[in-house]
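User: Can you predict the 3D structure of DUF493 domain-containing protein? Sequence below.
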Amino acid sequence: MQKFTSENFKEKLENTLNFPALYMFKFIVEDEKQDEVKKLFPGHDVKTKASSKGKYVSITAQVMMPSSDAIINTYLEAAKIEGIIAL
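Assistant: Sure. Here are the predicted structure tokens for DUF493 domain-containing protein:
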């Protein structure tokens, strides 16, 4: 199994997307943390869906991204949110 690195991810992004490109971010967080995730995408339409018991929320945002570095930086910012799961 190949270890994940930002260099590997950057290479994969650059080989599959032509920038600028529409990119879909998907995350799962506890309900009370959804506003922190939404702040990563100011001015963009963010869709949410609550889990069956309402404790967690899935968040999807489609954003036009200028580069692979911008995508990676968004994931790095998201990683600062406690308990976030990136899909």
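The first helix runs from residue 6 to 16. Helices lie at 6-16, 34-38, 68-78.
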